[in-house]
Amino acid sequence: MCGIVGGVAERSITNILIEGLKRLEYRGYDSAGLALVDHGQILRERRVGKVANLEQAVNESAIIGSIGIAHTRWATHGKPTENNAHPHISGRVAVVHNGIIENYQELKDDLEALGYNFTSQTDTEVVAHLVHEALKSTPDLLKAVEQVVPQLKGAYALGIIDTNHPDELIAVREGSPLVIGVGIGENFISSDQLALLPVTNRFIYLEEGDIARLTRETIDVYVNGQKVARPVKELDATISNATKGEFKHYMLKEIYEQPEAIQQTISQALNGNALRPDFLKDAEIDFSNIKQVQIIACGTSYHAGMIGKYWFEQLADLPCHVEIASEYRYRSPVIVGDTLYVCISQSGETADTLAALRDTKKRAAAKNLNITTMTICNVATSSMVRETDYHLLTLAGPEIGVASTKAFTTQLAALMLLILKIGQIKQNIDENQIAEITADMWHTPKVILDTLQNDTEILRLSELFVEKQHCLFLGRGTEFPIALEGALKLKEISYIHAEGYAAGELKHGPLALVDNDMPVVILAPNDEMLDKLKSNMEEVQARGGELFVFADEDSGIKNKDRQHVVHVPNVSSWLAPIVYSVPVQLLSYHVAVLRGTDVDQPRNLAKSVTVE
Ligand code: G6P
């Protein structure tokens, strides 16, 4: 997804902007650019491809400036070309933009009628021309932007500079994340605070509809022309710990961080083998009233939600539905009172999940229905955390690799904590079972460490996937979503076509695909479904399929011709999905590395999908 960095300082900010863009690279992008104001002129460089290309161009042209805006673009309107890269300029004005201006075509027609020439195919360029046009009727840049914003439809964030205001940076947040970094005698903006950590750890989180004017010494935020107060928050220093360290890729580092991440996540809720009395205390009254749960999420977070459904129903005796946010938000679902709506999201900014949440709240209010909203999220300052009644943080630390790993397993841990809490309040789960499961949860970091010992073995097996075109993942029960997740991981980063199936569906279609060339990954913990799964394995082998089985040592599944077994430690069936996630992550990672793909930033994908 696109990224914004901007700043106004006394020193030249060229290097700060480039460093900020590098820190946003993980989000996925296809071109980059920056614009500075120097001696009444806009100096701009844009390049297709990596930020390193832009950096080289900026070094060669040696442009400097103490006010500027920069951008990584992920193409939505128009191809990834230099002309389409941001910033876009209209005379004295330069603009960077995240999100989408839905009515840009109408606006473009009007602007062309006024004589404006368009040099790109983007929706963004209309904003530059509109601000330029508005500046004909007011000398004030802020007022000009305030005139333009009501004309724009869509969800967006903007950074705007003007050569006639060489000490002012304007920022707009309307549906796309934007934070202000508060410095000493200098101030910054970015779509992600991570970009600004080298220059500050103090942030103002803009709210939807905010327009801010930044100078070196001042930050003023306005809503509908009225100044509003927004608090400055200081960020925990540990969040800045986002480097690859000894690992070749962020993804591998994040896979190995899972024991610690899970420990952090459960520590906030557990005291010995019991839930802490203060864990989600504020939510107790609301939780005691809920009659069902609706989970809404996208991508990997949706797979976590699917496992939540099994657990909510089996453990807490509560009906639970789970749905992909992009479907949920548009199909006018019936909003039912006394429902707990749970958004699961690593970023807390995913456009579809956020829109589904907002729509649900609006419709519940219109019908006067009592609902409770909650987010399971990895970013404490995100929109979803701010807009739900309650939140439970996954304390995984920043996740940089586009393919989610530690965020996923910590989401599962957080879901389990939430389910235990609700089950306890509703007295659907007894203290002994809570004690048993929490004891297992404390044990999970160690079990994951043991599972990681299989890394070399999994690397060896991954060589057998390198030349393959297709792959199937099969599991039953809570391993079915892990099969979906395994297939998603493999396709995302290795570009091998992969499908996950509930093993019971094998005969209803995917078996037709099985032949000598089809690797089939089986997730086989030693649970009550194991015998049925073994029958599915026979069915695959009878058709020549090659099996790669992740199984419990007690499962009795052994290595044989065209059947490769990796032993995963014995775990209770509640924790099996967390533990079995690890070998499928490692498998996908090694296959991708062997195929030479860009593991941390796979083609066409973005970490945080903040537009539809
Ligand atoms: C993108 C990411 C996935 C993530 C999904 C949902 O597709 O690449 O890793 O699962 O968005 O993101 P969220 O931040 O809402 O969990």
UniProtKB/TrEMBL annotation:
<dbReference type="InterPro" id="IPR035466">
    <property type="entry name" value="GlmS/AgaS_SIS"/>
</dbReference>
<dbReference type="GO" id="GO:0005975">
    <property type="term" value="P:carbohydrate metabolic process"/>
</dbReference>
<keyword id="KW-0963">Cytoplasm</keyword>
<dbReference type="Pfam" id="PF01380">
    <property type="entry name" value="SIS"/>
</dbReference>
<feature type="domain" description="SIS">
    <location>
        <begin position="283"/>
        <end position="428"/>
    </location>
</feature>
<dbReference type="GO" id="GO:0097367">
    <property type="term" value="F:carbohydrate derivative binding"/>
</dbReference>
<protein>
    <recommendedName>
        <fullName>Glutamine--fructose-6-phosphate aminotransferase [isomerizing]</fullName>
        <ecNumber>2.6.1.16</ecNumber>
    </recommendedName>
</protein>
<dbReference type="InterPro" id="IPR001347">
    <property type="entry name" value="SIS_dom"/>
</dbReference>
<feature type="domain" description="SIS">
    <location>
        <begin position="461"/>
        <end position="602"/>
    </location>
</feature>
<dbReference type="GO" id="GO:0004360">
    <property type="term" value="F:glutamine-fructose-6-phosphate transaminase (isomerizing) activity"/>
</dbReference>
<dbReference type="InterPro" id="IPR029055">
    <property type="entry name" value="Ntn_hydrolases_N"/>
</dbReference>
<dbReference type="Pfam" id="PF13522">
    <property type="entry name" value="GATase_6"/>
</dbReference>
<comment type="subunit">
    <text>Homodimer.</text>
</comment>
<dbReference type="InterPro" id="IPR047084">
    <property type="entry name" value="GFAT_N"/>
</dbReference>
<dbReference type="GO" id="GO:0046349">
    <property type="term" value="P:amino sugar biosynthetic process"/>
</dbReference>
<keyword id="KW-0808">Transferase</keyword>
<keyword id="KW-0677">Repeat</keyword>
<keyword id="KW-0032">Aminotransferase</keyword>
<dbReference type="InterPro" id="IPR005855">
    <property type="entry name" value="GFAT"/>
</dbReference>
<dbReference type="InterPro" id="IPR046348">
    <property type="entry name" value="SIS_dom_sf"/>
</dbReference>
<keyword id="KW-0315">Glutamine amidotransferase</keyword>
<comment type="function">
    <text>Catalyzes the first step in hexosamine metabolism, converting fructose-6P into glucosamine-6P using glutamine as a nitrogen source.</text>
</comment>
<dbReference type="GO" id="GO:0006002">
    <property type="term" value="P:fructose 6-phosphate metabolic process"/>
</dbReference>
<feature type="active site" description="Nucleophile; for GATase activity">
    <location>
        <position position="2"/>
    </location>
</feature>
<dbReference type="GO" id="GO:0006047">
    <property type="term" value="P:UDP-N-acetylglucosamine metabolic process"/>
</dbReference>
<dbReference type="InterPro" id="IPR035490">
    <property type="entry name" value="GlmS/FrlB_SIS"/>
</dbReference>
<feature type="active site" description="For Fru-6P isomerization activity">
    <location>
        <position position="607"/>
    </location>
</feature>
<dbReference type="InterPro" id="IPR017932">
    <property type="entry name" value="GATase_2_dom"/>
</dbReference>
<dbReference type="GO" id="GO:0006487">
    <property type="term" value="P:protein N-linked glycosylation"/>
</dbReference>
<feature type="domain" description="Glutamine amidotransferase type-2">
    <location>
        <begin position="2"/>
        <end position="217"/>
    </location>
</feature>
<dbReference type="GO" id="GO:0005829">
    <property type="term" value="C:cytosol"/>
</dbReference>
